[in-house]
């Protein structure tokens, strides 16, 4: 009888443990399902939030693009207006016809011009060279050899034109050198530009054909010096 009672108690305990295990498993399964549902809801909410933010970002990008295009348009209008009111002849180097027109206009101007005007045209030409070099670099990035060669050809031609301008202005100056102020040694020193300028010109002339003794020509303003050849420095 005692053994039977013990067996019944053991069976009851085992059943209790089984039921407890079932309850724990059920609770664990329920918790897992709740977490999955909560995670799914959060994912849905996150997806909705991202979609809403994406539409906002897209709209803001569109607005920004429109604003940028508008500001660029206003800037270009101001540039065009400034070019108009200043009567500048600087061409838009993106258009080949404007480059050739500019070069033709320069060549057709009075050839015997003063040095100041020649310097001004040379500085203007160097600005155009800078524009061309920007397009050259862009063409090089894109691997467009034909455009590179075309832009560099214009650079060479424009700089050749600069030298022509300086030569013609200097030739004009030589024709009227007697009218220039000379120092006590009958020498004429003239210079244009400053020490740090990209383009600067120094002019020296001697008004006497004899009695000249000079070994060096200095232009302190533009920091340019020249040692004369012995055959010239010692002539009498």
Automatic annotation (TrEMBL):
Pfam families named in the record: Casc1_N
Q: In this protein, which residues make up the domain named IC97/Casc1 N-terminal? A: 10-210
Any one GO MF term held by the record is: beta-tubulin binding
Q: Which GO terms describe its cellular component?
A: axoneme
Q: Which family does it belong to?
A: Belongs to the DNAI7 family.
Q: What is this protein called?
A: IC97/Casc1 N-terminal domain-containing protein
The species is Strombidinopsis acuminata
Q: What is the lineage of its organism?
A: Eukaryota, Sar, Alveolata, Ciliophora, Intramacronucleata
């Amino acid at each position: 009888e005692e053994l039977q009672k013990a067996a019944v108690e053991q069976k009851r305990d085992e059943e209790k443990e089984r039921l407890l295990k079932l309850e724990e498993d059920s609770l664990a399964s329920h918790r897992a399902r709740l977490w999955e549902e909560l995670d799914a809801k959060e994912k849905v909410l996150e997806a909705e939030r991202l979609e809403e933010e994406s539409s906002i970002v897209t709209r803001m990008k569109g607005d920004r693009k429109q604003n940028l295009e508008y500001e660029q348009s206003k800037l270009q209008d101001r540039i065009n207006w400034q070019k108009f009111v200043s009567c500048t002849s600087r061409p838009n180097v993106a258009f080949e016809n404007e480059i050739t027109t500019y070069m033709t206009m320069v060549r057709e101007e009075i050839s015997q011009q003063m040095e100041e005007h020649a310097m001004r045209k040379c500085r203007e030409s160097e600005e155009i060279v800078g524009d061309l070099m920007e397009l050259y670099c862009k063409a090089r990035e894109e691997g467009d050899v034909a455009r590179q060669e075309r832009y560099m050809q214009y650079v060479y031609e424009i700089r050749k034109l600069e030298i022509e301008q300086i030569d013609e202005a200097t030739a004009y100056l030589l024709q009227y050198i007697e009218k220039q102020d000379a120092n006590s040694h009958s020498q004429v020193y003239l210079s244009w530009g400053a020490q740090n300028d990209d383009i600067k010109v120094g002019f020296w002339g001697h008004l006497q054909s004899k009695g000249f003794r000079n070994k060096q020509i200095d232009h302190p303003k533009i920091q340019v010096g020249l040692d004369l050849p012995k055959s010239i420095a010692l002539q009498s």
